[in-house]
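#struct-queue
[09:14] JT: dropping the first one here, sequence first, then the structure tokens:
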Amino acid sequence: MPRSTTPKKKGAPKRLEISRIGAQGDGISHGADGDIYVSFTAAGDVVDVWLEPGPRGTMRASLEAIVTPGADRAERHAVILARAAGVVCNI
């Protein structure tokens, strides 16, 4: 049986509200110890995340789920499929 390469997470995910978007496009939530950067989020989103240390003393978070989408979140209007090395990718 193949082993899972996904690391096991301990505890429960943390719920955050994204207050703004940073210069590199990540959503930012203000935590007790400073800002937490979350990729693939928009301002106003309420998300469940797994916290992890980031570079230079920052905190990053891996997105688990979008609980409530923010007003700034745009819906996808079109799906573009690309074929690369025999794999179909959603872009």
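[09:21] JT: and here's the second one, same format:
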Amino acid sequence: MDGTSAAGIGAQLRAARRAAGWTQQELARRSGVSRPTVGLIERGHPNGELGKVLAMVKALGLQLRLEQGPAQTFSLDVLEAETEPL
């Protein structure tokens, strides 16, 4: 699953919650996050607070791991060709 977008993280949290046999209400109780917020985060709503996501991760016994992604590169030749002079 994609762990680089709000939708991907939400999907991973939902899968872990379901694997634990928990309802959204149970996860809300264990993480201290409201049930509506759990639903928003699981659906990939991009405005979920990071602290609440981390509380859900901790309650589910998960670890959030950041990894170096592929390098973002661009060519100055392409940039110059596509840029209007000032």
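[09:30] RK: nice, looked through the second one.
[09:31] RK: The mean pLDDT is 80.
[09:31] JT: good to know. The chain has five helices and no strands.
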